[in-house]
C-alpha cells in the first residue's frame, strides 16, 4: 500500500505520516518547502519523540520519500497511490484540489479503476467533503461519474497536539503528543477500507468532530487570544495565568453545555474530557506558540468555527456564553503584522467598528444580545490595555 500525504509539517510527520508508516504504507510527503523535500529524500527517515505527562518514547520512521507540490511528477504519484491525506491548513485546500484534480484526470486518461481514498485531516468540519466540492468544481461534468465510482472522500475528526518544529537539513525529528484520536466515516470509503492503526471507524462522525472543535480548539483559541494580549508566548504561560485559566475553563464548559444538549453527552464524562485537555495544555514537552494557535483569526471567527459556532449553539439552547464572548473579543484585538487575516480584521474594526465587523464576519447570524456581550468584553479589554 502506498500513501501520498500533503504537508510535511508537524501534524504531517508527527501524526499522519507516522501512523501510515507504522500501518505498512510506503509514505510520500508532498510539500512546497523544497528544503524539507530535500531533507526527507536525503535521509529517508526521521524520529518522533512521543511524550506523555511524564514519559516519552522515540520511534524512527523509515523508508519515506518526498516530492515538491509543484513537481509535475506528483500527478503520477496520485495515479499510483491507494490513499491521499492532507494536513496543510484549511486555506490551502483549494490549491490542493487543483493538484488532485489533475492527478485524477491522469487516472482517467490511463483508465485506472483502482479505488483512491482521500482524507483531509484539517481543523474544519467535514474537510474532505469540502475538498470534494472544490474538486468537482474543477473537473469537467463528464468525469463526475468516475469520481463518484472510484474516489472516496472520507471525513474525519483528528485530535492531537504537536508543536511546530523548525526544519533544517540535518534534523527532521519532531515531538508529538501521546494522546491521539483519528475517527473516520466508514461509509465514505471506496473499495476495501485500509487497515490503519488507531484509526477508529464510525457511522456517525458529527459528535466527535464537534466535541474536538468546540472543546480542544475552542479552549486553545480562547487561551491564545487572551494570552497574546498579555504578551505571553506559549500555551503553558497563558494557561498558568489564573484569570485566563478560569475564562478558558468556563468557555469550554459553555461550549460543552451545547454539546451535551445537542448530542446527549454524559455531563460528567464531558467534564472529565475538559480536565484531560487542561493536562494536555500544561504539558511542558508540548510547548506550542500562541502566535501559531492564533493565526488566521478570520477563519477562526467563522460561523462554523471554534469561537462563533458554540455561541450560536448557546443562543439556540438558551444557554450562557459570556466567557466564549470574551474569547471572541480577545480575537478581535489580535494584530500580527505577519498575519494578513489579523491585519484585515484590525483594519475592518478601525474602519467599520466592532459591531459591523462582527455582523460581516458572522453573516448577521449573531443576535443583538450576543453582539452587545462581545462589544462589552472588547471595550473592557481595550481599557485594560490602555
Automatic annotation (TrEMBL):
UniProt GO molecular function: mannitol-1-phosphate 5-dehydrogenase activity
Gene3D superfamilies: N-(1-d-carboxylethyl)-l-norvaline Dehydrogenase, domain 2 (1.10.1040.10), NAD(P)-binding Rossmann-like Domain (3.40.50.720)
Record GO biological process: mannitol catabolic process
Pfam families: Mannitol_dh (PF01232), Mannitol_dh_C (PF08125)
Broad enzyme group: oxidoreductase
Keyword annotations: NAD, Oxidoreductase
GO cellular component: cytosol
Reactions this protein catalyses: D-mannitol 1-phosphate + NAD(+) = beta-D-fructose 6-phosphate + NADH + H(+)
E.C. code: 1.1.1.17
Segments forming domain Mannitol dehydrogenase C-terminal: 205-345
Stretches of the chain forming a coiled coil according to its record: none
Top-level taxon of origin: Bacteria
Positions contributing to NAD(+) binding: 3-14
Mannitol dehydrogenase N-terminal domain segment(s): 1-196
Family: Belongs to the mannitol dehydrogenase family.
Protein name, UniProt field: Mannitol-1-phosphate 5-dehydrogenase
Organism: Buchnera aphidicola str. Ua
Lineage: Bacteria, Pseudomonadati, Pseudomonadota, Gammaproteobacteria, Enterobacterales
Amino acid at each position: 500500500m502506498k500513501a501520498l500525504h500533503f504537508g510535511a509539517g508537524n501534524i504531517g510527520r508527527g501524526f499522519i505520516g507516522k501512523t501510515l508508516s507504522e500501518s505498512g504504507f510506503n509514505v510520500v510527503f508532498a510539500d512546497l518547502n523544497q528544503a524539507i523535500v530535500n531533507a526527507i529524500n536525503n535521509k529517508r527517515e526521521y524520529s518522533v519523540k512521543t511524550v506523555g505527562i511524564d514519559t516519552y518514547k522515540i520511534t524512527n520512521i523509515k523508508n519515506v520519500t518526498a516530492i515538491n507540490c509543484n513537481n509535475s511528477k506528483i500527478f503520477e504519484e496520485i495515479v499510483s497511490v491507494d490513499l491521499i491525506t492532507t494536513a496543510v491548513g484549511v486555506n490551502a485546500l483549494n490549491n490542493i484540489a487543483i493538484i488532485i484534480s489533475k492527478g485524477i484526470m491522469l487516472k482517467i486518461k490511463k483508465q485506472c479503476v483502482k479505488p483512491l481514498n482521500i482524507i483531509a485531516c484539517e481543523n474544519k468540519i467535514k474537510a474532505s467533503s469540502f475538498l470534494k466540492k472544490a474538486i468537482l468544481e474543477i473537473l469537467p461534468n463528464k468525469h463526475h461519474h468516475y469520481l463518484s465510482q472510484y474516489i472516496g472522500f472520507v471525513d474525519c475528526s483528528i485530535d492531537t497536539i504537536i508543536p511546530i518544529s523548525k526544519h533544517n537539513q540535518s534534523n527532521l525529528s519532531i515531538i508529538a503528543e501521546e494522546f491521539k484520536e483519528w475517527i473516520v466515516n466508514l461509509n465514505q470509503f471506496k473499495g476495501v477500507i485500509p487497515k490503519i492503526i488507531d484509526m477508529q471507524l464510525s457511522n456517525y462522525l458529527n459528535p466527535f468532530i464537534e466535541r474536538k472543535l468546540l472543546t480542544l480548539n475552542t479552549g486553545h483559541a480562547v487561551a491564545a487570544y487572551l494570552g497574546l494580549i498579555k504578551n505571553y508566548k506559549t500555551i503553558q504561560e497563558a494557561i498558568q495565568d489564573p484569570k485566563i485559566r478560569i475564562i478558558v475553563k468556563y468557555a469550554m464548559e459553555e461550549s460543552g453545555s451545547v454539546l451535551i444538549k445537542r448530542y446527549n453527552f454524559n455531563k460528567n464524562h464531558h467534564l472529565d474530557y475538559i480536565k484531560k485537555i487542561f493536562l494536555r495544555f500544561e504539558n511542558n514537552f508540548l510547548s506550542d506558540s500562541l502566535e501559531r494557535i492564533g493565526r488566521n483569526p478570520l477563519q477562526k471567527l467563522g460561523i462554523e468555527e471554534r469561537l462563533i459556532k458554540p455561541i450560536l449553539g448557546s443562543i439556540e439552547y438558551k444557554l450562557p456564553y459570556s466567557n466564549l464572548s470574551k474569547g471572541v473579543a480577545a480575537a478581535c484585538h489580535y494584530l500580527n503584522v505577519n498575519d494578513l487575516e489579523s491585519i484585515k480584521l484590525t483594519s475592518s474594526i478601525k474602519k467599520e467598528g466592532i459591531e459591523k465587523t462582527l455582523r460581516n464576519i458572522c453573516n448577521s447570524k449573531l443576535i443583538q444580545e450576543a453582539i452587545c456581550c462581545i462589544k462589552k468584553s472588547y471595550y473592557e479589554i481595550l481599557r485594560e490595555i490602555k
